[in-house]
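Example record for the data management plan.
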Amino acid sequence: MLTTNEILRVICLGALLLTILPAEADALKSAHRLLAVGSVRKQFETQTELQARAILRHYDSILATSTTLVLPATIKSAIIDCYERVYAWDNFEPGIAQIFADNLSEKELELLIDFYSNLGLAPGDIENFRTIIAKANSIQAQSLDYLFVNSASCVETDAELILDYVATQRAAGSVHADD
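Corresponding structural encoding:
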């Protein structure tokens, strides 16, 4: 049989959980909304595409300086596909939203949502906005750490594709042994 004190503790703990969990859920929901209105998906996907294209140019350059070969479109497409799959925004959005929810209050999240929705900033919210800006470096560092820890790599697959292609071309006599 539970004592009155134990019953009160259970009731208080339950009440505390009922108030904390919805607040966390609301903050997470707001963080997802902020990422949506801030067009983070589009920016992330654009950066992924630009990075993949830069990597392809780098691979082409290495191949051109060491052989007479040019990467065929099928290999380039396979490399791009890897980067699009591994660095798809859907792989990272839940963790990034959680970082925002953990670091910003509901009021701060709503203030940013309003700001990115072009609803302006009331003069009374300027100090709150400065507080948010002060948190930006920490949120960015946590987000970058999250991306690094939760990212696979395409480099090994890229190298395998390119080396197999070069070996096949050498075997076919398209590339000289000193290339």
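Summary line stored alongside the record: The longest helix spans residues 4-37.
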